[in-house]
Amino acid sequence: MIYRPVLFAASTAFALSGRVVESFHKPSHLWQRKYSSTILKMNKMILESPSAERNKAPIYDQVLATNIFPQLIKDSKSDKIKVLELAAGCGLHTTHFVQSFLSSNKELGIEWHPSDPDIEARQSIDARTIQSGLEKSIVNANGWILGKSGGTACGDGDRGNVDAGSSNSGHDGDVADYEQYHNYFDLVMCINMIHISPWEATLGLMACAGTCLQKGGMLMCYGPYKVDGTAVESNLRFDESLKSRNPGWGVRNIEDVIDAANKEGLSYVDRIEMPANNMSVLFRKD
Q1: 153-170: b or e for each residue (b if 16 or more CB lie within 10 Å)?
Q2: Can you tell me the distance from the alpha carbon of 151 to that of 126, in angstroms, rounded to the nearest whole number?
Q3: Three-class SS state of 91
């Protein structure tokens, strides 16, 4: 199955934003109780990911701030950089990357589209967005499907392995309904998905990036990889562990990932060595 996106409408629990709060001229004790209850519910929706907490700073500092955003800003013909983050998980990456970009770039804005097949992950992303006051820069999380949905950064992959269309994996959608996003994005990001999802999800990722990126736009994939069929001992053990959990998962050969990208009009640019024996692999749309 190829990339089949669908938009997700955010929960009504998030309707109470900072702008709405400011419209209350005479807040009552009843309103304060309702507001406190809404905040409590929102906080309960926020999920955590130890791996995302560890790698959010290295990914931004060593890849986005150094290798990707400077070039996109230089080439931009718009007043904002448009980013699609697939398998966005619990939203830790989303909010950290957007906050970091806004704090260091005063001339250009950013329009961030987080996406995850898991409805609980999407709720967490939207809750983190409101908690961080980033509603103007981060749109509601959507549930676009990449072939078969796989693990996400939320729960370090334990939440995944569900077929597209099941209760927590989004819904099937018609690509023709989303022509507004064809050739739309400057950057597509996918962190820690390829090894904890079926190979069909990687093919869907590449099809999505090939369709949605503007010419000259970038794709960044982060995670562990094999090179020429091998890797460091810890990643080989990780590969065995993943396959024991799900035969469709595993540390992929970087050559196979590059080949899948090439077939969708994406040229390999570079790979950047990252902490914990991971890599950031960069592609550009031809």
Answers
A1: bbbbbebbbbebbeeebb
A2: 19
A3: coil
